[in-house]
User: Fold this.
Amino acid sequence: MAKKKILLIDDDVDICTLLKRFLERKGYEVFICFRGKEGVLTLEKYAIDLVLTDFRLPDIDGLELIQKMKEVNRTVPIIVITGYSDVKQAVKVIQLGAYEYVTKPIFPEEIVLHIEEAIKKSGSELSQNDQKETKVIVAEKKDKSENSFQFIVGSSATSKAIQKQIKLVAPTDMTVVILGESGTGKEVAARRIHENSNRKSKPFLAVDCGALPHELAASELFGHVKGAFTGAVADKKGQFELANGGTLFLDEIGNLSYENQVKLLRVLQERKIRRVGSEKDMQVDVRIIAATNEDLKKSMEKGSFREDIYFRLNEFKIELPALRENRETIEEFAYHFLNEANQFLNKNVKAYSKEVIAIFKNYDWPGNIRELKNVIRRAVLLTTNEIIDEKALPHELKTSRSKGDLEEKIKFQTPLKTSLEDEVIPFSVQQKEQVRTLKEEVQDFEVQVIEKTLKLVDYNKTKCAELLGIKRKTLYNKIAAYGINLNKKDE
Assistant:
């Protein structure tokens, strides 16, 4: 059996030598490059099974390197090693197609586990693609007591990248903005972030800002005291107060009035609220996840949405694709919703005909996942046997096939580019400047986290390092590099 080939890229000769010896003892064939461009040429020349690269190289940064490598070999797993641990940089690396992001110090056994997992997963995915069947697929039976509200992780590159973003940001307290058309599952993604966070035992509350009456929005969000206005017959807690310690999901945040945007800004800045009619401030500890199907930048240009709110909210952004842009997942979603509909309607429909699956994949789904779910529930209700056929589908789905000209057929048969691939293309032109500013933002974020943790442990640097998951020496280096003030208490 041929040895798996690993491409190791790092300008540190000692690290390369140690890792090469270790990996060769594990049965791998290792190619070493000390420059990023040299690594790209090596990838073009040899059938590399995995790339292990440092993020900071003398001739090219990690983001540009990943982009170039994915242009050469889109499927090769890339593991990035860096001495700088920050969420934003990690997410960007994952968005561009890296398999994993590992921080220094390097533990060889840990690296081997990542390598084995990446190569195994890459091989199994290729095998599955080769063995794809076009026959009717039978839906799995699920226990009726199972919670039907769940986050579906599709097998497409886009779906997997979104899942990795969620896992990266969930344990932090960063404010998240989720973008996507109506029906793409923004609230489901927000719940997933909450369920994977340290706040999962606390409340998760969702507020549709678009449905809040203008005159009652402040009361709903921040609460009111008795007598604050006509009809306020008793004190009332607002959503921020009810979500204290947990997560508040603000859907369609672009619909908030200017006055309430000002109040929201105060909450974001000071973590304080004031009930309508009260003169007292109240401290709250709430993580905010906002969502919108609007272009907030256009709203800012019109003056209907404040810039300072946008930049406060936009610490981390997740973009959910429209279903028509992620057609690879349609069949997976269809079988998930078939199971749900069977449970809801107490039926036992097992599958779709091949014609129905073809219609699903060729339809544009303007209502996205929500529309797909409703169509399937209706089809299950109308189906009298075990297979859903065309007769059970709404008229607009069946007629959508006749609209397809030659261009549409070519589009349907050609593998679609994911939104992440589209994002890679203009990166070197427009986004490179954003990476420079991102470094500054990351430094500010690290300073805030270190200062907050130091205060929490009464400036005990050993405990601080333990909580942050870094070595004491690393903490000292960061304190010195960032000029963090220790005058209040120093060891």
Summary: The domain at 157-319 is CATH 3.40.50.300 (Rossmann fold). The radius of gyration is 26 Å. Confidence is low (pLDDT under 50) at residues 126-150, 402-436. The first helix runs from residue 13 to 25.
